[in-house]
Amino acid sequence: MTKDTFQLIIAGKLLSISHDETxxxxxxxxEILLKYHCASGHCGKCKIKLISGNVILRHSGGISKExxxxxxILTCCSTPISHVEI
Length: 86
Ligand code: FES
Prior knowledge:
86 residues; alpha+beta; Ubiquitin-like (UB roll); three-stranded mixed sheet; two-stranded antiparallel sheet; 2 helices; 7 strands; globular; binds FE2/S2 (inorganic) cluster
């Protein structure tokens, strides 16, 4: 594991994720079929609770500030900056 690679835990399954890969891309690369629709930060379909860790969230209006404050992210436009669990 390099400094640009983190651990991603989805439903207890441990994966390796690159700093420039979205959580949704990583999940599908490992055949974990998370729900999504637009894959571009608009629709909010991929919203999920972040259990631990930190991400950069580059959305296009698909999530409210209130949901972000409550710890939700959009998997389609979130890349990790630490180990992450969802
Ligand atoms: S799939 Fe639409 S916001 Fe992520």
